[in-house]
Amino acid sequence: MQLITCPWCGAREETEFHYGGEAHLPYPDEPETLTDEEWAHFVFFRANPKGPFAERWYHSTGCRRWFNAIRDTTTYKFHQVYRLDEQRPAIP
Ligand SMILES: [Zn+2]
């Protein structure tokens, strides 16, 4: 069992959290102009890196807030967590 540090609540058991996918995906500026293929790309296509990755996480059984984290996809280790209004840290 791993502890994940929520930016508001502190370290909690990982079972309190839900994964929310890749972070920092901007919503299209002019969504009405997108083709079906472009929509499909926005909705379904995600990076799948090996190593540090910026992700969204949700503290579902705690404060019920979203936050971002840099997590290593090979070790599952969280390098850093940060609020949505904070600057994205450099990937180690
Ligand atoms: Zn929390």
TrEMBL record:
Record keywords, A-Z: Oxidoreductase
Residues in the signal sequence: none
E.C. number(s) listed in UniProt: 1.5.3.1
InterPro entries for the chain: SoxD, SoxD_sf
GO MF annotation: an example: sarcosine oxidase activity
The organism's place on the tree of life at top rank: Bacteria
GO biological process entries: tetrahydrofolate metabolic process
Gene3D superfamilies named among the record's database cross-references: Folate-binding superfamily (3.30.2270.10)
Keyword Oxidoreductase in record: yes
EC category name: oxidoreductase
Annotated protein name in UniProt: Sarcosine oxidase subunit delta
Taxonomic placement: Bacteria, Bacillati, Actinomycetota, Actinomycetes, Mycobacteriales
